[in-house]
Design goal:
By secondary structure, the protein is an alpha+beta fold. The protein has one domain: Alpha-Beta Plaits. Helix content is about 20%, strand content about 25%. It has two helices and six strands. The longest helix has 26 residues. The protein is elongated. The two termini are about 45 Å apart.
């Protein structure tokens, strides 16, 4: 970037990249799951919602199946890495929740595992998230066995957790230049979005060495 601040990437952008990737690839992978599990075609319904919040009304069955993506922050498994140009590669934690409803406990249990498996496969096989991410590691997978029975359906949930690396999250050496301590702060009306000026002249010092 030529913006003097460089990129300032936030966790919400990663959540949106995960949602977009899952939504784009789910139809293909759900059909592959049906083939591998010998399930009739279209027996597994597509998720009715892909959302980027950790809150969902589990008792509202018209939302199900639902995929919920949330990043609680950095993974804690690794630390951010500074690159040679001053930018940082950052390891974020991403949790994908799967909420489903079935006609009984066994059906619901199988649906949870099938949808979680689809999310896992998409995240690992499409781990660049459309060019946004720089590597994905599978960390954990779990299933909630506390089933609820609502509107003639058994409701259950599962989750799969990843560490996702994102490059260029922030630039250490960017930002407006301040000539010296105590000088006026940069103008918030003119500095944001401004670019580094083009180089006008270059000074080169040449030192001759005797052979």
């Amino acid at each position: 970037m030529t913006d003097i601040f460089g990129d300032i990437i936030i966790g919400s952008q990663l959540e949106e990249a995960v949602v977009a990737t899952l939504e784009a690839w789910f139809p293909v992978y759900i059909r592959e799951m049906e083939l591998q599990q010998s399930i009739p075609q279209d027996a597994l319904p597509l998720p009715r919602s892909f959302i980027t919040t950790d809150k969902i009304n589990r008792e509202n069955t018209d939302q199900l199946p639902a995929i919920v993506v949330v990043s609680p922050g950095l993974s804690g498994r690794n630390s951010p890495k500074q690159e040679g140009d001053g930018t940082f590669r950052v390891p974020w934690a991403i949790s994908i929740g799967v909420f489903v409803g079935g006609q009984d406990r066994t059906t619901t249990k199988n649906l949870i595992r099938q949808y979680v498996g689809i999310c896992r496969a998409i995240m690992l096989q499409k781990q660049s998230l459309g060019g946004f991410a720089d590597g994905t590691t599978w960390l954990d997978e779990s299933y909630d066995n506390s089933f609820a029975f609502v509107d003639q359906e058994t409701i259950g949930a599962g989750s799969v957790i990843f560490e996702v690396w994102v490059a260029g999250v922030v630039q250490r050496f960017g930002g407006p230049a301040v000539p010296f301590e105590g000088s006026p702060a940069p103008d918030p009306d003119t500095q944001p979005g401004s670019e580094w000026p083009p180089i006008q002249t270059v000074e080169v010092t040449v030192t001759n060495k005797e052979e």
